[in-house]
Amino acid sequence: MPRTKGDHEARRRDVSEAVWHVMAARGFTGLTLRAVAAQLDATTGLLTHYFPTKRALVEYALNLLERRTLTRTRRDSGEGTAALRDALLDMLPLTAETTDINRIWVSSWDAALSDPDLSSDYARKYAASRDRLSERVAADQALGVLPPGDPAKVAAGLQAFVLGLVVQALFAPAAFPPQRQVQLVDDHLATLTGGRTGGHR
Questions:
Q1: Exposure winner among 1, 44, 69, 166, fewest CB in 10 A?
Q2: Radius of gyration (Cα) for the chain, nearest Å?
Q3: Nearest CA among 181, 2, 156 for reference residue 98
Q4: What is the DSSP string of 6-42?
């Protein structure tokens, strides 16, 4: 019996879940056709239908990671610094899900740095993240809860702060448990606002 489109889409979903489980368990460096095949209880020959090369698997995995990152449930506390705080907390490994996502992102940096095309794509992703933060910063400046200045510069500093905190929390989770990560974000925002109020929690 010929396979239907529904069968094909179901198999793609199965493959996606297998790729995700491998990345979450082994990090990006552990992502291989053999590992994905074992997760699926299938042969590597079956997977070559979807991924004829390791590069194709890597590209697919990164697209899957980006989709998972962008579509997961996020905090929504309204406007003011509460909204900016939400955006920062959403980047941190505060739950099992966000820990997995961050582990995979960080473990993928090596592959991205060694591939010019992937490096350009990552630069685009981080620039887009800065742009979103910059919009929130500008909104807070308009409300008077952040001092005036270049929103893009503030956003770059916030992104650098959060990415640094992500790395520390992944490598030293006992030293940087979720509650400490949240407190560090709150302390950083308090420094930026300089005692201004308006919309923060």
A1: 1
A2: 20
A3: 181
A4: HHHHHHHHHHHHHHHHHHHHH-GGG--HHHHHHHHT-
Residue linked to tokens 């879940």:
17
Q: Which of 40-49, 61-70, 136-145 holds the top average pLDDT?
A: 136-145
Give yes or no for a contact between 125 and 112, defined as CB atoms under 8 angstroms apart: no
CA angle, residues 167, 189, 199, in degrees to nearest 5: 130
CB-side neighbour CA atoms (13 Å) of 137: 23
Superfamily, domain 74-193: Tetracycline Repressor, domain 2 (1.10.357.10)
Give the pLDDT score at 199.
46
CATH of 5-67, one of 1.10.10.60, 1.10.260.40, 2.60.120.10, 3.40.50.1000: 1.10.10.60
Query: What is the C-alpha separation between 156 and 130, in angstroms, rounded?
Result: 6
* Structure-block tokens of residue 196: 């201004």
- Residue with the larger pLDDT of the pair 111 and 137: 137
**Beta carbons of 61 and 69 less than 8 angstroms apart:** no
Domain boundaries, the chain: 5-67, 74-193
The pTM of this model reads 0.80
Residue pair 101/56 in contact (Cβ under 8 Å)? The answer is no
